Amino acid sequence: MSPERRPLVLCADDYGLSPGVSRGILALARAGRVSATGAMTNIPAFRVAAPPLRELAGRIGTGLHLTLTAGEAIGPMPRLAPAGRLPPLGRLMRAAFAGGLDRGEVRDEVERQLDAFVAAMGRPPDFVDGHQHVHVLPGVRGPLLAALAGRGWRGRLWLRDPGERPAAIRARAFAAKAGLVAALGLGFRRAAAGAGFATNRGFSGFSDFAAGEGSAADDGSAADEGFAASFERAFAALGPAPVVMCHPGLVDDDLRALDPVVASRPLEQAYLASDRFAAFLEREGLRLVPAPA
Q: Is 37 helix (H, G, I), strand (E, B) or coil?
Protein backbone atom coordinates (compact mmCIF):
# COMPACT_ATOMS: atom_id res chain seq x y z
CA MET A 1 0.00 0.00 0.00
CA SER A 2 1.42 3.39 -0.97
CA PRO A 3 1.77 5.95 1.84
CA GLU A 4 -0.91 8.62 2.09
CA ARG A 5 0.07 11.89 0.47
CA ARG A 6 0.49 14.96 2.63
CA PRO A 7 -2.15 17.68 2.03
CA LEU A 8 -1.29 21.27 1.23
CA VAL A 9 -3.08 24.27 -0.21
CA LEU A 10 -1.51 25.75 -3.34
CA CYS A 11 -3.20 29.13 -3.67
CA ALA A 12 -3.01 31.27 -6.81
CA ASP A 13 -3.23 34.93 -5.81
CA ASP A 14 -4.74 37.80 -7.79
CA TYR A 15 -7.71 36.23 -9.56
CA GLY A 16 -9.57 39.03 -11.33
CA LEU A 17 -6.55 41.32 -11.55
CA SER A 18 -6.65 41.07 -15.35
CA PRO A 19 -8.31 38.81 -17.94
CA GLY A 20 -4.99 37.09 -18.64
CA VAL A 21 -4.28 36.35 -14.99
CA SER A 22 -7.78 34.94 -14.54
CA ARG A 23 -7.55 32.75 -17.65
CA GLY A 24 -4.23 31.36 -16.51
CA ILE A 25 -5.50 30.52 -13.04
CA LEU A 26 -8.67 28.93 -14.41
CA ALA A 27 -6.64 26.67 -16.69
CA LEU A 28 -4.47 25.51 -13.79
CA ALA A 29 -7.48 24.99 -11.51
CA ARG A 30 -9.29 22.90 -14.12
CA ALA A 31 -6.17 20.79 -14.54
CA GLY A 32 -5.82 20.26 -10.79
CA ARG A 33 -2.55 22.19 -10.59
CA VAL A 34 -3.73 24.78 -8.02
CA SER A 35 -6.24 24.11 -5.26
CA ALA A 36 -7.34 27.62 -4.23
CA THR A 37 -7.44 31.16 -5.55
CA GLY A 38 -8.07 34.57 -4.00
CA ALA A 39 -10.19 37.08 -5.93
CA MET A 40 -9.65 40.84 -6.13
CA THR A 41 -13.25 41.99 -6.12
CA ASN A 42 -12.47 45.71 -6.45
CA ILE A 43 -10.95 45.26 -9.91
CA PRO A 44 -13.47 45.63 -12.79
CA ALA A 45 -12.09 42.54 -14.57
CA PHE A 46 -13.31 40.35 -11.70
CA ARG A 47 -16.96 40.81 -12.66
CA VAL A 48 -16.35 39.17 -16.03
CA ALA A 49 -14.11 36.49 -14.53
CA ALA A 50 -16.51 35.49 -11.73
CA PRO A 51 -18.93 33.19 -13.65
CA PRO A 52 -16.30 30.62 -14.72
CA LEU A 53 -14.89 30.64 -11.19
CA ARG A 54 -18.33 29.80 -9.80
CA GLU A 55 -18.26 26.63 -11.90
CA LEU A 56 -15.28 25.41 -9.87
CA ALA A 57 -17.09 25.59 -6.53
CA GLY A 58 -16.28 22.49 -4.52
CA ARG A 59 -13.23 21.69 -6.63
CA ILE A 60 -11.02 24.51 -5.40
CA GLY A 61 -11.15 26.96 -2.52
CA THR A 62 -12.23 30.45 -3.57
CA GLY A 63 -11.57 33.39 -1.31
CA LEU A 64 -11.40 37.16 -1.05
CA HIS A 65 -7.97 38.61 -1.79
CA LEU A 66 -8.53 41.81 0.21
CA THR A 67 -7.06 44.67 -1.77
CA LEU A 68 -5.99 48.04 -0.38
CA THR A 69 -3.01 48.77 -2.65
CA ALA A 70 -4.15 48.11 -6.24
CA GLY A 71 -6.85 49.64 -8.39
CA GLU A 72 -9.59 51.74 -6.86
CA ALA A 73 -11.63 51.42 -3.70
CA ILE A 74 -15.17 50.22 -4.29
CA GLY A 75 -16.57 53.05 -2.17
CA PRO A 76 -15.38 56.32 -0.64
CA MET A 77 -12.19 56.28 1.42
CA PRO A 78 -11.48 59.99 1.93
CA ARG A 79 -8.38 59.44 4.09
CA LEU A 80 -6.72 56.44 2.41
CA ALA A 81 -7.84 57.01 -1.18
CA PRO A 82 -9.23 60.56 -1.48
CA ALA A 83 -9.29 60.43 -5.28
CA GLY A 84 -10.47 56.81 -5.37
CA ARG A 85 -7.19 55.15 -6.28
CA LEU A 86 -5.70 52.97 -3.55
CA PRO A 87 -2.19 53.84 -2.36
CA PRO A 88 1.03 51.91 -2.95
CA LEU A 89 2.06 49.43 -0.28
CA GLY A 90 4.73 51.68 1.23
CA ARG A 91 2.27 54.46 1.97
CA LEU A 92 -0.29 52.05 3.40
CA MET A 93 2.32 50.50 5.69
CA ARG A 94 3.52 53.87 6.95
CA ALA A 95 -0.04 54.86 7.79
CA ALA A 96 -0.73 51.48 9.42
CA PHE A 97 2.27 51.58 11.74
CA ALA A 98 1.82 55.27 12.54
CA GLY A 99 -1.77 54.66 13.62
CA GLY A 100 -2.99 56.74 10.71
CA LEU A 101 -5.62 54.38 9.29
CA ASP A 102 -9.25 55.18 9.90
CA ARG A 103 -10.57 51.83 11.14
CA GLY A 104 -14.15 52.65 10.26
CA GLU A 105 -13.14 53.59 6.75
CA VAL A 106 -11.12 50.40 6.38
CA ARG A 107 -13.95 48.26 7.69
CA ASP A 108 -16.40 49.85 5.26
CA GLU A 109 -14.14 48.90 2.34
CA VAL A 110 -13.66 45.39 3.71
CA GLU A 111 -17.45 45.05 3.86
CA ARG A 112 -17.81 46.31 0.29
CA GLN A 113 -15.25 43.85 -1.04
CA LEU A 114 -16.94 41.01 0.86
CA ASP A 115 -20.31 42.10 -0.53
CA ALA A 116 -18.88 42.11 -4.05
CA PHE A 117 -17.60 38.56 -3.57
CA VAL A 118 -20.95 37.29 -2.31
CA ALA A 119 -22.83 39.07 -5.11
CA ALA A 120 -20.57 37.60 -7.79
CA MET A 121 -20.12 34.10 -6.35
CA GLY A 122 -23.51 33.58 -4.69
CA ARG A 123 -21.97 32.55 -1.37
CA PRO A 124 -19.43 33.65 1.25
CA PRO A 125 -15.73 33.12 0.57
CA ASP A 126 -13.97 29.95 1.70
CA PHE A 127 -11.10 32.06 3.04
CA VAL A 128 -9.75 35.60 3.22
CA ASP A 129 -6.20 36.78 2.64
CA GLY A 130 -4.69 40.05 1.47
CA HIS A 131 -3.00 41.39 -1.64
CA GLN A 132 0.58 42.07 -0.50
CA HIS A 133 -0.48 40.62 2.89
CA VAL A 134 -2.32 43.81 3.85
CA HIS A 135 -4.86 41.87 5.92
CA VAL A 136 -2.36 41.39 8.77
CA LEU A 137 -1.37 45.06 9.12
CA PRO A 138 -2.27 47.12 12.20
CA GLY A 139 -5.45 49.01 11.50
CA VAL A 140 -6.55 46.40 8.96
CA ARG A 141 -6.61 43.10 10.84
CA GLY A 142 -8.98 44.43 13.50
CA PRO A 143 -11.58 45.80 11.06
CA LEU A 144 -11.31 42.61 8.99
CA LEU A 145 -11.94 40.31 11.95
CA ALA A 146 -14.79 42.52 13.14
CA ALA A 147 -16.41 42.48 9.71
CA LEU A 148 -16.21 38.70 9.42
CA ALA A 149 -17.45 38.10 12.95
CA GLY A 150 -20.25 40.60 12.43
CA ARG A 151 -21.53 38.50 9.53
CA GLY A 152 -21.73 35.41 11.71
CA TRP A 153 -19.04 33.64 9.69
CA ARG A 154 -17.07 32.24 12.63
CA GLY A 155 -16.10 28.67 11.88
CA ARG A 156 -17.19 28.96 8.23
CA LEU A 157 -13.97 30.21 6.66
CA TRP A 158 -10.25 30.32 7.31
CA LEU A 159 -7.74 33.16 7.20
CA ARG A 160 -4.26 33.09 5.73
CA ASP A 161 -1.47 33.57 8.23
CA PRO A 162 1.78 34.57 6.45
CA GLY A 163 3.88 33.66 9.50
CA GLU A 164 6.30 30.78 9.59
CA ARG A 165 8.90 29.18 11.90
CA PRO A 166 12.38 30.74 11.59
CA ALA A 167 13.96 27.37 10.79
CA ALA A 168 11.53 26.82 7.92
CA ILE A 169 12.14 30.33 6.57
CA ARG A 170 15.89 29.69 6.51
CA ALA A 171 15.34 26.50 4.48
CA ARG A 172 13.74 28.36 1.58
CA ALA A 173 14.53 30.92 -1.07
CA PHE A 174 14.01 34.64 -0.35
CA ALA A 175 14.29 34.14 3.40
CA ALA A 176 14.69 37.86 4.14
CA LYS A 177 11.40 38.71 2.46
CA ALA A 178 9.63 35.83 4.18
CA GLY A 179 11.03 36.91 7.53
CA LEU A 180 9.82 40.48 7.06
CA VAL A 181 6.29 39.38 6.20
CA ALA A 182 6.26 36.97 9.14
CA ALA A 183 7.26 39.86 11.42
CA LEU A 184 4.45 42.03 10.04
CA GLY A 185 2.00 39.26 10.83
CA LEU A 186 3.10 38.61 14.41
CA GLY A 187 0.06 37.89 16.54
CA PHE A 188 -2.30 37.47 13.60
CA ARG A 189 -2.96 33.77 14.20
CA ARG A 190 -3.71 34.42 17.85
CA ALA A 191 -6.04 37.32 16.99
CA ALA A 192 -7.83 35.21 14.37
CA ALA A 193 -8.29 32.34 16.81
CA GLY A 194 -9.60 34.74 19.44
CA ALA A 195 -12.19 35.95 16.94
CA GLY A 196 -13.21 32.38 16.09
CA PHE A 197 -11.35 31.80 12.82
CA ALA A 198 -8.94 29.04 11.87
CA THR A 199 -5.70 29.71 10.01
CA ASN A 200 -3.12 27.73 8.10
CA ARG A 201 0.02 26.63 9.96
CA GLY A 202 2.95 27.08 7.64
CA PHE A 203 3.33 29.51 4.75
CA SER A 204 5.69 29.87 1.79
CA GLY A 205 5.94 30.77 -1.88
CA PHE A 206 7.92 34.01 -1.77
CA SER A 207 9.65 35.22 -4.92
CA ASP A 208 11.66 38.23 -5.98
CA PHE A 209 9.32 38.48 -9.02
CA ALA A 210 12.31 39.42 -11.17
CA ALA A 211 12.65 36.11 -13.01
CA GLY A 212 11.17 35.59 -16.40
CA GLU A 213 12.88 37.95 -18.78
CA GLY A 214 13.17 34.95 -21.08
CA SER A 215 10.21 32.86 -22.17
CA ALA A 216 8.94 29.38 -21.40
CA ALA A 217 7.46 26.91 -23.86
CA ASP A 218 3.76 27.45 -24.51
CA ASP A 219 2.90 23.97 -23.21
CA GLY A 220 4.86 24.48 -20.00
CA SER A 221 7.21 21.57 -20.73
CA ALA A 222 10.39 23.66 -20.67
CA ALA A 223 9.87 26.06 -17.81
CA ASP A 224 13.05 27.82 -16.83
CA GLU A 225 15.18 25.42 -14.78
CA GLY A 226 16.46 28.04 -12.36
CA PHE A 227 12.97 29.33 -11.66
CA ALA A 228 11.57 25.82 -11.20
CA ALA A 229 14.29 24.86 -8.73
CA SER A 230 13.72 28.05 -6.76
CA PHE A 231 9.96 27.53 -6.69
CA GLU A 232 10.35 23.95 -5.48
CA ARG A 233 12.24 25.21 -2.43
CA ALA A 234 8.93 26.72 -1.27
CA PHE A 235 7.84 23.18 -0.42
CA ALA A 236 10.74 22.54 1.97
CA ALA A 237 10.09 22.25 5.72
CA LEU A 238 6.32 22.52 5.38
CA GLY A 239 4.26 23.25 8.47
CA PRO A 240 1.48 21.00 9.79
CA ALA A 241 -1.31 22.67 7.74
CA PRO A 242 0.58 24.55 5.02
CA VAL A 243 -0.33 27.07 2.35
CA VAL A 244 1.98 27.79 -0.57
CA MET A 245 1.12 30.92 -2.55
CA CYS A 246 1.83 31.40 -6.24
CA HIS A 247 1.27 34.10 -8.84
CA PRO A 248 0.66 32.50 -12.24
CA GLY A 249 -1.05 34.18 -15.16
CA LEU A 250 -0.96 35.26 -18.78
CA VAL A 251 0.35 38.76 -19.45
CA ASP A 252 -1.93 41.40 -20.96
CA ASP A 253 -2.14 45.19 -21.06
CA ASP A 254 -4.50 45.31 -18.07
CA LEU A 255 -1.90 43.52 -15.96
CA ARG A 256 0.90 45.83 -17.07
CA ALA A 257 -1.21 48.86 -16.11
CA LEU A 258 -2.11 47.61 -12.63
CA ASP A 259 0.74 45.56 -11.21
CA PRO A 260 4.56 45.45 -11.34
CA VAL A 261 4.60 41.63 -11.20
CA VAL A 262 4.60 40.76 -14.89
CA ALA A 263 7.69 38.89 -16.06
CA SER A 264 7.53 36.01 -13.58
CA ARG A 265 3.86 35.13 -14.07
CA PRO A 266 4.24 33.21 -17.36
CA LEU A 267 7.08 31.19 -15.84
CA GLU A 268 4.92 30.23 -12.87
CA GLN A 269 2.08 29.38 -15.27
CA ALA A 270 4.33 27.16 -17.37
CA TYR A 271 5.95 25.42 -14.43
CA LEU A 272 2.67 24.62 -12.67
CA ALA A 273 1.26 23.19 -15.91
CA SER A 274 4.38 21.13 -16.56
CA ASP A 275 5.12 17.44 -16.21
CA ARG A 276 7.97 18.44 -13.93
CA PHE A 277 5.56 19.86 -11.35
CA ALA A 278 3.32 16.79 -11.49
CA ALA A 279 6.37 14.58 -10.96
CA PHE A 280 7.55 16.81 -8.11
CA LEU A 281 4.25 16.43 -6.25
CA GLU A 282 4.39 12.66 -6.75
CA ARG A 283 7.99 12.41 -5.61
CA GLU A 284 7.40 14.55 -2.52
CA GLY A 285 4.19 12.74 -1.59
CA LEU A 286 2.03 15.86 -1.74
CA ARG A 287 -1.62 16.30 -2.70
CA LEU A 288 -3.37 19.60 -3.31
CA VAL A 289 -6.41 20.39 -1.17
CA PRO A 290 -8.75 23.43 -1.07
CA ALA A 291 -8.33 24.24 2.64
CA PRO A 292 -5.71 23.63 5.32
CA ALA A 293 -6.13 20.13 6.73
A: strand
